[in-house]
Each structure stands twice: as C-alpha cells, then as structure tokens.
Design brief:
Radius of gyration: 18 Å
Strand order of the largest sheet: 2-1-3-4
Helix content: 40-55%
Structural class: alpha/beta
Number of strands: 8
Largest sheet: 4 strands, parallel
Number of helices: 13
Order of helices and strands: EHHEHHEHHEHEHHEHHEHEH
Distance between the termini: 41 Å
Number of domains: 2
C-alpha cells in the first residue's frame, strides 16, 4: 500500500524522531511511504481560535498537497481530527467540500491505520517495564480512536500496560489554551502528572506530540522518574528500557 506521511508541525519542528519512527514502522509493515512537500500546518490553531476564514487558506493548501495520495497517515490524533473537520469548514462551498471529504475519508492516525486498515496488532516490538497511556482528547473524544493504541501496546513483548487514574482528564495543553489560560493549564497538567506517578508506570505513552510535550515538560520540572514516549517510538523499538 502506498501511504503519504502527514508529519504535522510539532513533529516537523520539535519531534523529528517521531516522524522517522513513523516512516520506518510503516515501511516495516510493507507500506511505500512518500512525503508531499507542499504540506504545512493543517490550520488547527487558527480554527480553534475562531478564525475560520483564515483556516480555509491552510485547509485548501493541505487538500491540494494530498489530492493525489492514496492514503494519508499521521502520528497525531489531533491533526487527523482537523482533517475530519474540513468538510464542515467548507459547508457552503460544494466544490471544496467534496475535495475535503475525499481527504478526510482517506486519512488515518497511525495506530488506527495499523490496526483497522492493515489488520496488524503485533508489530514485533520489545520493551521491559510498565507503561500507562494518556488518551488525548482529540484522539478519543473526537476521532473516536480509543482501543488501537492499547491493542498495540499490549502486544509489546516485556511491557505491562497499567491503567492511568483519571485517564479521561485533559492534560491542559489544548493548543492556544495553554497560552491563553496558562494558570488553569498548569493545574491540569499537574493533576495529570500526579496520576501518572500514582500509576507506578515507567513510561507515559501517547499518540499526540503536543500533549506529550506538555506532560513531559511538567514531569521534568517536578523530577518524576517517568520516561515519555510517542507510541511509534515504542512500536519501532526506539525507546530506551528503564534501568531498575
């Protein structure tokens, strides 16, 4: 299967290892991966701030960038969710709405793609220790991808998956929310870190780089002994085992 990588802004700028892991993992699973160079931001920051007309410019660019792609895969439930919003953005423009729907229908978050499209649940990964999952808001509540990350992690040899207390709570990032309401955001991520520590996990795992960056920053400031990984790093055997 030929797959186009939607890398996302955060991965492209801050988390290049996640992009590399995504490509390598897809190739190991038999996919041919390309990278449409015209891709930029999906427009989510502007959209979430209410600038919908401005968002259309970014959306049109992304629609054109992936117009000839067979399948689009991204290591981000949040950014994939934004693609799913595109048809609503162009509700009054039937030409662009149709193009937006075609893009939305062929776009998948990476774990969703592996489990639901490729039909793979065990990618042959190994890692010793305990992991708990942060189910990001957009990934679960909006995209509806609840089970795929856990299914894949439970098949990682040597890894025990433990439940995160109050797993349903937001980490406080929320894009521009963390900037505009930083005091509230700080309290939210503190509560999230409390729950992670309470779980007894060695690793905090998630599928959205934005949430993980927010949580990892607080973990490091508090000196908690928990390693933070994007799920593709573990599935691609790029995570360092905890030293007991």
């Amino acid at each position: 299967m030929k797959v186009s990588l939607f890398s996302t802004c955060l991965v492209d700028v801050f988390e290049k290892r996640v992009g590399i892991a995504t490509v390598e993992l897809l190739e190991k699973l038999g996919c041919e991966v390309d990278f449409p160079a015209a891709q930029v931001c999906c427009g989510q920051p502007a959209y979430n701030s209410g600038y919908h007309e401005e968002t259309k410019k970014a959306a049109k660019n992304m629609i054109k960038a992936f117009e000839n792609s067979e399948v689009v895969v991204a290591p981000s439930g949040s950014c994939v969710t934004m693609f799913k919003h595109y048809p609503h953005l162009f509700e009054s423009d039937l030409v662009w709405k149709d193009k937006a729907e075609r893009l939305a229908n062929k776009t998948y978050e990476i774990t969703q793609f592996i489990v639901e499209v490729l039909g793979v649940t065990n990618v042959g990964a190994k890692l010793e220790g305990k992991a708990t999952i942060h189910p990001s808001c957009h990934m679960t509540r909006l995209l509806g991808n609840v089970t795929a990350p856990k299914i894949l992690l439970e098949q990682v040899e040597g890894l025990e998956v433990v439940e995160l207390p109050k797993y349903y709570n937001c980490c406080g990032f929320g894009g521009t929310f963390a900037v505009k309401m930083n005091d509230v955001s700080g309290e939210m991520v503190d509560e999230k870190v409390d729950c992670i520590v309470e779980s007894g996990a060695d690793y905090l795992v998630g599928g959205d780089a934005s949430c993980l960056m927010n949580i990892e920053g607080r973990i490091k400031r508090r000196g908690a002994n928990v390693k933070v990984y994007h799920i593709v790093e573990i599935l691609n055997n790029q995570a360092e085992a905890v030293v007991r």
